[in-house]
Amino acid sequence: PGREKRREVMIFYYGVQHFRKNKGCYGQPVACNCGHTYPREIIRDSKWGHFDYIPLIPMGTDYYSVCPVCMNGLKADKEQKKEIKQLLAQAPSNVHFTPHMVSYADKKTFDFYLQDDATGEKIRILQGVSKYEVKEEYKSRLIKKKDIVQEESAL
Fold first, then answer.
1. Which residues, listed in sequence order, are joined to residue 57 by a DSSP beta bridge?
2. pLDDT digits over 98-144, tens only?
3. Which of 38, 58, 33, 64 is nearest to 46 (CA)?
């Protein structure tokens, strides 16, 4: 009497966590469905088994070869992985894009585009979308927020 039984519950989380890294543009320029011709962008995707969100067990690495403009591409098979590793040993191409986010006067709609630093060409990726959609786009492209040039438009 007077003593209460306490039940304590411990919760453990486990699963697979992905770490993606953009390795840059490599190789010869290739024409893409979007109509642009650029060297392919290489993205490394490392899979780790985690326990309570602490990566513990490496579970493999995949490589993706994608168009830097439209992100259309393929996962590399075993033979292509060897080629990609050889490409990564070389110097990357000088192709670089600066991401831009344009906000309009109403502050509710945005455009997102990439500017080719070599040619100055501006390539529109998204038009008239919410800020959330722009954020999702630069996350999917592995772009850091500090790298985005923000502009305002009076239109």
1. 49
2. 888 888 867 788 888 888 888 888 888 888 888 889 888 888 888 88
3. 58
